[in-house]
Amino acid sequence: MGQNVNRNVVIVGAGHAGASAALQLRQNGWQGAITLLGAEGELPYQRPPLSKAWLKGAVSFDGVVLRKAEVYQQQGIALRCGCRVVALDRGAKVVVLSDGARVPYDVLILATGSRPRDLPVPDAGLDGVVTLRTVADADGLRSRLGSTGRLVVIGGGYIGLEVASAARALGRDVVVVEREARLLARVASPEVSDFYAALHAARGVDLRLSAAVEAIGGRDGRVTEVMLTDGTAIPADTVLVGVGAIPESALAEAAGLACQDGIRVSSTCGTDDPDIYAIGDVSRRPLPFNGGAGRLESVQNALEQARQVAASLCGLPAPAPEVPWFWSDQYEVKLQLAGLPGSEVHRVMRGVSAEGRFAVFHIGTDDTVRAVEAVNMPAEFMTGRQWIAQRRAVSPARLADVAVGLKDAAV
Amino acid sequence: MPKVIYVSATGLHTVIEAGAGDSVMEAAVRNGVPGIDAECGGACACATCHVMVSTDWLSRLPPAAEAERTMLEFAVDPQPNSRLACQIRLTAELDGLVVHTPVSQR
């Protein structure tokens, strides 16, 4: 033990990870000052609804806020919104704000998140070409989708497909342009990709797969079309670029912390500076169920690392490692994923994709479950998640047979 | 404005004035009531907002939909009066609702 819970902690970044770490530190008995610095003007909020209910006007800011302002006051957390950190001075142990103010720390937690990757094509700076990360982005996109016109989504990943789903619900014409031969190519199995391609096509989305963007064209500073490398021009009133995210690690890199697609951290979120930690999207963390390290962009990861750093700083036992999980809502279909497939797996299908209820299990050579993707099959998701945590072996043949109860598929 | 009474596993009572249309989960999380984690933010995807509804209130709630019933089976130590707090919408009729948070959600 010997942890000093009276130190002064500064958290840079007030997203899901940063805000949760502040609250978790207090819950764990942290006595020292906690300062939470957020770059955005609003109270910390949840990002997942921004690509879903927010665009349809089905939720207000009060509906996505993480905690009311009073909760931070009651917990003795100094929350400063609209506060941009421009430098980190590790020698003096201070962070420097954009107005020149210097905020001293004993312990620093970097929770700076990630930002949308830019599209490396000419004229991507036209009015009407947008990305989606913040509530301000989501407001802008919602007002664009409120008027008539065509939305072209560049990138068939989760953000792009969720926005496509919301835009169709609003009656907009939608084209999705994906460079790979299938949707969700980096993050889902071919079975899940094919299901979502059929779903979006059935709901009237014009899918262009294996289609690379050459340029974005406009007139008078406003976007008018997306040009593909095969010469096709797709008329567009709004273009959403959803081609992945990159970690906001510039502060850490400038300060000389070890970075490699994210700030490298230990299982307690420590960086190579003993007084600096990093959590959430910005961190490259050990992956206990897969080996190696990786960056995870999810609420589950943000919360897990908030718990890890808060336990470590307060001298509490490390929480049990969690299986990474994620979800996506498109139309009325719920996709829930647990685990990371990795290599050396084969896939077992349970259920029928044409019926809109199926799960794809990723099974290792030792028959243990490594990952599950469940479409409208919450029991398969929850069971799969437990099996992954237990490194449970299953019978692939029984698992593939929906007549066999799920529990009876475990060996 | 319906009131909700949250009772922790250690017997601590917290009374919250919920906003109209809030779920039992949202009213708890926004006001910092411990014991309701709600990792998915109300998408019925995680079962970390598991509560036990006081039995005299249970029959006054709309029944759980299939997705909620399935997720509840996988909550830690589910009870006959278990519900997911994110799926209970507060109305004037539910003023005074009492829910208990489980030991597993601190």
TrEMBL record, chain A:
Keywords, comma-separated and alphabetical: Dioxygenase, FAD, Flavoprotein, Oxidoreductase
PANTHER family xref list: APOPTOSIS-INDUCING FACTOR 1, RIESKE DOMAIN-CONTAINING PROTEIN-RELATED
Keyword Lyase: no
Species, as recorded: Nitrospirillum amazonense
Residue ranges constituting the Reductase C-terminal domain according to the UniProt record: 325-409
GO molecular function, one term: dioxygenase activity
Domain (FAD/NAD(P)-binding): residue spans on this chain: 8-306
Domain of life: Bacteria
GO cellular component labels: cytoplasm
Cofactor(s) recorded in Swiss-Prot or TrEMBL: FAD
Protein name, as recorded: 3-phenylpropionate/trans-cinnamate dioxygenase ferredoxin reductase subunit
Automatic annotation (TrEMBL), chain B:
Name listed for the protein in its UniProt record: 2Fe-2S ferredoxin
Database matches in SUPFAM superfamilies: 2Fe-2S ferredoxin-like
Presence of the UniProt keyword Iron-sulfur in the record: yes
Keyword list, A-Z: 2Fe-2S, Iron, Iron-sulfur, Metal-binding
Any one Gene Ontology molecular-function term assigned to this protein's record: electron transfer activity
Cofactor(s) in the UniProt record: [2Fe-2S] cluster
GO biological process, one term: P450-containing electron transport chain
Residue intervals of the 2Fe-2S ferredoxin-type domain: 3-105
Similarity remark: Belongs to the adrenodoxin/putidaredoxin family.
Taxonomic superkingdom: Bacteria
InterPro entries, per the entry: 2Fe-2S_ferredoxin-like_sf, 2Fe-2S_ferredoxin-type, Adrenodoxin-like, Adrenodoxin_Fe-S_BS, Beta-grasp_dom_sf
Keyword presence, Iron-sulfur: yes
GO cellular-component term (any): cytosol
